[in-house]
Amino acid sequence: MHSRRLLCLLLIASPIAGPLGFAIAARAESAPAVDTAAGKNPIAYRLSRTDKISIAIIGEPDLNAANKRIDVNGNVNLALVQDVHLAGLTVTEAQTAVENAYRDGRILRNPQVTINIEEYAPRTVTVGGLVKFGGTISLPPETVTTLKDLLSKVQLQETANAKAVRISRDGPDGKTVVFTKNVDSVMHARRDSGDSNDGDFIIEPGDNIFVPEKIF
Known about the structure:
Structural class: alpha+beta
Number of strands: 12
Radius of gyration: 25 Å
Helix content: 25-40%
CATH architecture of the largest domain: Roll
Strand order of the largest sheet: 7-6-12-9-10
Strand content: 25-35%
Mean pLDDT: 80
CATH topology of the largest domain: Outer membrane lipoprotein wza fold like
Low-confidence stretches: 1-43
Shape: elongated
Distance between the termini: 92 Å
């Protein structure tokens, strides 16, 4: 009697377990990727100078490079191909760059490269001017930070001139480039001045952001 009851329970449970198990598996396979548009996908992270990475080439252990620091010029020195420029590239783009280096150098016919980030470089920017919470601001390592995101965090003062926000950035050649961005409509939820795209300007580590005062 006891075994008959157990058999009945198994017969009842088995058709339910099958569809449930399939649904869970299907959901896992079809789960949407993290929103890259929101800048929250680690793949969207762009390598920076002084990031420490490990490079593995499938089937070529002698060419693997562990704990390599990206130098101040944005390069990594690799066996047989020397310097490969990786700073500013996503992990996927960097893998392709290394593959191309070995392929173009006629060292490997079809290299397959995997790159892992072992240690992130310090990611800070400086914010000054008419903001409530200025100073040195840390940027999350695996997040793309826009100018709008940053200014929302530090909060503009009432007399801030959001039409002329300046971003100073040192280029790889050592020269400083200054960008002037109008984010007035974005920060004040207006849609009539045509400058909303400036809020999407990507902030990079080392940037110096200055918000001037309005001239009345």
